[in-house]
Specification:
Elements lengths: L1 E5 L7 E4 L9 E10 L2 H7 L10 E2 L3 E9 L11 E4 L2 E2 L13 E2 L11 E5 L3 E3 L6 H5 L2 H14 L7 E4 L5 H12 L3 E6 L2 H9 L4 E4 L5 H9 L2 E6 L6 H7 E9 L12 H6 L3 E4 L5 H13 L6 E6 L3 H10 L5 E5 L1
Parallel strand pairs: 11-12, 11-14, 12-13, 14-15, 15-16, 17-18
Antiparallel strand pairs: 1-2, 1-4, 3-5, 3-9, 3-18, 5-6, 6-10, 7-8
Helix pairs in contact: 3-4, 6-7
Amino acid sequence: MKASILHGKNQDLQIESFTLPDLQPGEVRVRIKAAALNHRDVWIQQGQYAGLKYPIILGSDGAGVVESLGEKVDSSWLGKEVIINPSHNWGKGEACQGRDFKILGLPDNGCFAEYVQLGAEYLYPKPPHLTLTESAALPLAGLTAFRALFSRAGLQKGEKLLISGAGGGVAQFGLLLGVAAGAEVWVTSGSAEKIEACKALGAMGGISYKSENWSRELSQLAGGFDVILDGAGGDGFNELLKAANPGGRIVNFGGTRGKITDLTPQILFWKQLSILGSTMGSPGDFQAYLKFVESHQIRPTLDRIYPFAEINLAFRRMAAGEQMGKILVEL
C-alpha cells in the first residue's frame, strides 16, 4: 500500500510503499477514503510531542470501508462504511484514562495511508447523514469537545458558553455541539473573519483576544459565562476566571500558549469556580458523541480538502494556523 511516512523531526512526509503485517485475531483492515489533520500531527512533525518515534504513519482521524477481517471479528463488519475511534486502551473507568491509553497515529501507525489496521472495537458505523469525508473530520477533535463540555463541565441547555480560540478543530466542534445543546455560545479569536464565521454557525458574537482588556469588553457585551472551553492555557488564563460567572466551570484540553502563570486565587475561591482538565474520551463518550451528532444532524465545519499527494500542503496550512474548521486529505 501507499503511506505517508514521517522519517524525522521537521521533515516533510514521504509517500512510499509500506507493507502491513498479517491481521491478528480481533483486528480489521480499513481502506481509508479520507483522513483529517489535527494539531497533534503537526506537533509530532515538529518534534514537540512525547513518545516520538520514527518512521511513523501519522493520522488519528479516518473514515473508510472495512476490507479484511482477522479471526474472531464479526463478519457483518465486512464492506461497512466506518469511522475510527482514535482513543485506544482507555481503561475501565470513566473518570480518566488508564496507564495504557494511547492515541492512534503515535505510537501505532495511523490513517495517512491507503489502509489502517486496528482492533475491531474501535470501529463505528458512519453517521448516515454524513459523507465519508465529513465523517473523517469527527473523531479526535469532536470527541475531545464532547467530553469536555458534557462529561466534564456538564453543559446544560440555556447556559452561557465561551469558547476561546475559535478557529481550531476542538473549538469548532465545541461551537457546533454547544449550539445544538441549546447553549448561548460566544467566542474569542485573533481574527475578525473567524468571529464572523462563528456567528454564521450559531454563535451570538465574539471578541478578539488581542484586545488588552478583552475579558472586560466581552463581559460588558455578553455578561458572564457558566462554562468556558479553553485549549490555550498560558498567560491569559486569568482572564477566563474574570469572565466566568460565580459557580462557573472552566474546562481546559490543551496548552498551546504554555504554562498558566497568572492565576489569581482570590477570584477562584470567591467565585467558587471549578477548573477541569479533559483529554480525549472514553468509549462511552464516543458512542454518546456519535448519537448526539446523528440526533442533531450535525455537520462538521470543513476548511480545505487536499488530495493525498498534497498532504504536505495540508500540514503547512495547519502549521500556519490559517484554517477555519478541519483540514482533510482524500485518498
